[in-house]
Amino acid sequence: MIILGIDPGIAAVGYSIVECKGNSMKALDYGCIKTKSTELFPDRIKTIYDSLIEIIEEYQPKDLAIEELFFNKNVKTAIKVGQARGVEILAGINKGLEIYEYTPLQIKQATVGYGRADKKQVQEMVKLLLNLKEIPKPDDAADALAIAICHGAGLKFKEEFRMK
Questions:
Q1: Which of 3, 57, 81, 146 qualifies as a FRET site for 29, CA 20 to 30 Å off?
Q2: Residue 67 contacts residue 6 (beta carbons within 8 Å)
Q3: What is the pLDDT of residues 87-117, one digit of tens each?
Q4: Active site residue 140
Q5: Which of 7, 63, 101, 143 is catalytic?
Q6: Whole-angstrom distance, CA of residue 101 vs CA of residue 69
Q7: Residues 6+ apart with CB under 8 A from 22
Q8: Rg (CA), the chain
Q9: pLDDT for position 41
Q10: Active-site option among 63, 67, 88, 143
Q11: Are 112 and 122 in contact (CB under 8 A)?
């Protein structure tokens, strides 16, 4: 099974494509979709949507795993990221993917085994679990890989995390 992992955002959307075969996971692709703060917001979300559609068409994932948003003190930023997250989910729905969401705690637990792990610990485990030569960059891409790993690790329980 191929999983699209997404670390939601507006300025930078981390994405990953991870293939799961039994207990084995392999990163097929990962990176970041970037938008410029100087662009109009509708243009930024269109860029994100179009880029995700291209990625989905190229790799044909079955599931989309996305991080749940946590509370942001800057309400304006939180709203924009929430709108972008909606577009990211919409791209998956429009291409027939099943959508699953995970909390940061669940993602850390699945990758490191400890829900309060720091970013560096998660990145190091992503590198080890996917047998990568170095820690994936940028951080948003590493986070997207961790999200896909989380989903892949719990495939037998995935209905519990299906977005409702």
A1: 81
A2: yes
A3: 999 999 999 999 999 999 999 999 999 888 9
A4: yes
A5: 7
A6: 9
A7: none
A8: 15
A9: 96
A10: 67
A11: yes
- Beta strands 2-7 and 63-67, pairing class: parallel
Query: Model pTM?
Result: 0.93
Distance, C-alpha 41 to centroid of its chain: 21
pLDDT of residue 64: 98
Catalytic residue among 63, 88, 101, 140: 140
| Beta-sheet strands, E only, within 35-145 | 63-67, 98-102
Would residue 118 show up in a list of annotated catalytic residues for this protein? no
The CB density around residue 114, as the number of other CB atoms within 10 Å, is 13
Is residue 29 part of the annotated active site? The answer reads: no
E-strand stretches of the chain: 2-7, 12-21, 24-34, 63-67, 98-102
